[in-house]
Q: What sequence folds into this?
């Protein structure tokens, strides 16, 4: 898998799907539409600042709450290439894999990386490099079948190729 | 090493003798569920798959319930997409406005969920059916699409936490107080990736509606599922509502639990989750200051069932909603609505100054039918009190039982029936 390299947007514990994409926008399922409201209720500046290849880092239980796949879709469509967290809520975790948004769990990285840091993630090895702080972490690498799903850009293509 | 109840159901559906926590399996599905928000995305994804149609037209349930009756043009388009898909694929269990209800109240009532099932739903509160001894869990739209196409889903077998419930809840303490107490104790990620298995001799003192409420909010502790043993109460419910055969699974005596808790239900008090997380709980006794309330919502997949409406009516009968406060009551299904009418509950609500709505998820997720303005405060029987969940990002949601919600509607401040004169 291709490495992700980008600037970090840092958040705390329990970033829920209602702040990632508020339900008032769920009358649309168009990724481009959803991306324009991504993180709106927690960080109004996010959509103005985010650039292709950026990385979101948060601490515990990222993506808790609703099963809305619109949440990882919005993040991916906003240009984010990877989310790093200490832990993810389980439905968000599944959804991210299924739509091909790489996510990785790593406690130390999640806690030590700061907003604005430049970070590089190697998904094959699970190695996370903080280029700003010159630190390296070992995150949990994906099991092979999840790597295949992400490499196929999601579950649909994976099923089609089986 | 034995298996938990959840592990046994999963093993049976994966065609395996045994499974253990952490193992990746592929399981056969008994039911795949979606609503008007998640199904359009799933339908779009399924259309990209090289499949002829759905795996089984009787084993899919499509329930437009979030933004219906259609709240705006975009929602109408979503519902139209679901309706046309259901017609095209001859989906047996598509529920149109007029016969629908909030999905997690509706499906058990229609007899579509029974003990021993494996159920996935593109809605996080799909874990509700664990109340009947099924394994059921929320997934996203792509998993729903794959489920509709193949009748299978992949799972990582969960480890478990055991909650041993003893004793009998006191008056005005219900399933909502039990689950809020538990979430307050273990936190919103306290059961992350794991099963919450409820056992103990106190379960007999919980009605079916109490159990639905408890299992419903397992997700608010991060759990993969919540599950109850199948006792006479559950069997009676299934016999009344379903013609499907059910299968009872019991945890092995040497099943492995990562944690165990014992909760004496008789010690619990009416419990309220303060903004902005379901884990921020206080008992009513700890609420000493006057917290003024602008709106009360009684309804949702968590607390819109008959028990809930009866409790609210007991509190509201002969009383009136506080001047200037909006009280919105939403029966969860048409059947519940009808029964509430027969029992005179609707009259009590309307005479008390509450508004009664057709079934919808509406305000719970800030869709419509009760959106909050800046700095407004709502006591709600729903399941989440996240920032902006019901409206403006400065508004506040206090999660509580129907008893506390109804009493707060009368008092105009957070209250409980025991405090009303």
A:
């Amino acid at each position: 898998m291709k490495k992700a390299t980008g600037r970090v947007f840092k958040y705390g514990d329990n970033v829920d799907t209602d702040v990632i994409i508020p339900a008032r926008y769920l009358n649309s399922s168009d990724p481009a539409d959803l991306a324009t409201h991504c993180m709106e209720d927690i960080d109004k500046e996010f959509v103005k600042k985010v650039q292709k290849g950026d990385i979101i880092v948060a601490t515990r239980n990222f993506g808790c709450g609703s099963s809305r796949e619109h949440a990882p879709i919005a993040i991916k469509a906003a240009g984010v290439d990877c989310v790093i967290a200490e832990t993810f809520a389980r439905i968000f975790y599944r959804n991210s894999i299924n739509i091909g948004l790489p996510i990785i769990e790593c406690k130390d990285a999640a806690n030590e990386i700061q907003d604005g840091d430049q970070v590089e993630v190697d998904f094959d090895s699970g190695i996370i490099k903080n280029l700003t702080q010159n630190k390296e972490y070992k995150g949990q690498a994906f099991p092979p079948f999840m790597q295949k799903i992400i490499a196929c850009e999601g579950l649909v293509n994976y099923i089609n190729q089986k | 090493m034995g298996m938990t109840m959840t592990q046994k159901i999963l093993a049976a559906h994966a065609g395996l003798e045994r499974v253990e926590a952490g193992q990746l399996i592929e399981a056969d599905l008994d039911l795949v569920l979606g609503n008007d928000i998640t199904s359009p995305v799933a339908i779009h994804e399924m259309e990209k798959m090289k499949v002829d149609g759905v795996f089984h037209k009787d084993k899919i349930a499509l329930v437009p319930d979030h933004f219906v009756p259609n709240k705006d043009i975009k929602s109408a388009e979503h519902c139209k997409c679901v309706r046309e898909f259901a017609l095209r694929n001859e989906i047996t269990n598509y529920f149109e406005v007029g016969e629908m209800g909030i999905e997690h109240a509706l499906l058990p009532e229609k007899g579509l969920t029974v003990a021993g099932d494996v159920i996935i739903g593109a809605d996080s509160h799909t874990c509700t059916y664990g109340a009947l001894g099924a394994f059921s869990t929320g997934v996203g739209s792509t998993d729903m699409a794959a489920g509709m196409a193949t009748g299978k889903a992949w799972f990582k077998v969960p480890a478990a936490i055991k909650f041993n419930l003893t004793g009998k809840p006191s008056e005005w303490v219900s399933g909502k107080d039990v689950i809020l107490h538990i979430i307050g104790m273990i936190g919103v990620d306290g059961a992350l990736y794991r099963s919450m298995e409820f056992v103990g001799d106190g379960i007999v003192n919980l009605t079916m509606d109490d159990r639905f409420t408890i299992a419903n909010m397992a997700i608010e502790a991060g759990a993969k599922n919540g599950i109850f043993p199948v006792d006479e109460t559950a069997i009676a419910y299934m016999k009344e509502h379903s013609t499907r055969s059910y299968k009872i699974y019991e945890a092995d005596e040497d099943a492995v639990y990562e944690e165990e808790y014992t909760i004496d239900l008789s010690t619990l008090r009416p419990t309220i989750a303060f903004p902005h997380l379901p884990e921020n709980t206080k008992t009513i006794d700890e609420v000493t200051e006057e917290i003024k309330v602008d709106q009360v919502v009684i309804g949702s997949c968590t607390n819109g069932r008959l028990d809930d409406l009866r409790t609210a009516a007991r509190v509201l009968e002969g009383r009136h909603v506080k001047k200037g406060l909006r009280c919105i009551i939403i029966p969860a299904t048409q059947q519940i609505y009808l029964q509430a009418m027969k029992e005179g509950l609707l009259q009590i609500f309307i005479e008390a100054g509450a508004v009664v709505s057709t079934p919808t998820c509406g305000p719970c997720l800030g869709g419509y039918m009760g959106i909050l303005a800046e700095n407004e405060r709502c006591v709600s029987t729903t399941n989440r009190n996240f920032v902006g969940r019901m409206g403006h990002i400065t508004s506040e949601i206090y999660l509580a039982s129907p008893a506390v919600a109804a009493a707060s509607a009368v008092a105009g401040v957070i209250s409980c029936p025991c405090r009303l004169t």
About this structure: Chain B has a mean pLDDT of 97. Residues 30 and 259 of chain B are 30 Å apart (CA to CA). Chain B touches chain A through 49 residues (CB under 8 Å). Chain B has two domains: 5-264, 271-419.
